Amino acid sequence: MYICIMYSSELIKGTLKTIVLNLLKDNDKMYGYEITHKVREMTGDKIQITEGALYPTLHALEKHGDVTTEKVYIGKRVRKYYRLTDQGKVTVKERVNELADFMKTMRFLLDIDSSTQHA
Amino acid sequence: MYICIMYSSELIKGTLKTIVLNLLKDNDKMYGYEITHKVREMTGDKIQITEGALYPTLHALEKHGDVTTEKVYIGKRVRKYYRLTDQGKVTVKERVNELADFMKTMRFLLDIDSSTQHA
DNA sequence: GCTTTATACATAATATTCTTATGTATAAAA
DNA sequence: TTTTATACATAAGAATATTATGTATAAAGC
Predict the structure, then answer these.
(1) What is the chain B residue with the closest CA to A2?
(2) pTM listed for this prediction
């Protein structure tokens, strides 16, 4: 039996933008802190996005025109919501398709089929 | 229709060691140049490992004790063969299992199922 | 015979993307 | 009132890739 607590950081590398964009595709608007918790919740803590990785990524997505931001005050505390732009919606599709294709290739290359996959 | 010429470099990041180790698992011994061509051949040029990435990776695997090397002269030209160690055989299993698990999680997270995967 | 292409290794400068650490500040819970 | 949770941000450093460069032999094309 293979037990996986948390994935090594190398694996997550390169997929963070895709994860964030895809969440925004399904959730209209989200803020950073919410994103990290949603991913932890959805993956049973297997993928834990650090703040040092997330915030620069969100800023890069905004700079690239894939998301827009909106500041909301909860009392005196600021919360920064992110929302997909029309261009962002195109980017998500491209990235998710590319990742799906890549994973298919990797499954072939490493000879991984459904029966050998572990829970 | 989604057409993929070659994967963006971010995706391959973090999977190179796993790819190399897995090839050595199936092929007894291989040399660097052979590995790059084998991967290109098996992926229809979708994954093209650069020499600048491969050789440092092979050296790191040797340093880590996962592979041993053997120099062979083809005429006057040197060729450096790599072979898995016993420890390397353990490392391959761990890495492939982890990657399989990670991809399964990503497929769930991004809502990718077989029917939506593209060729 | 000469030039190009293929084989085969290696490293250095640079870029990207992450981790870890640190900083700031408010709000809720113990 | 101290700790934990919420919520943002950036800087130093590590890891891993790209791009460029270097060396050298062998085969193929012209």
Answers:
(1) B97
(2) 0.90
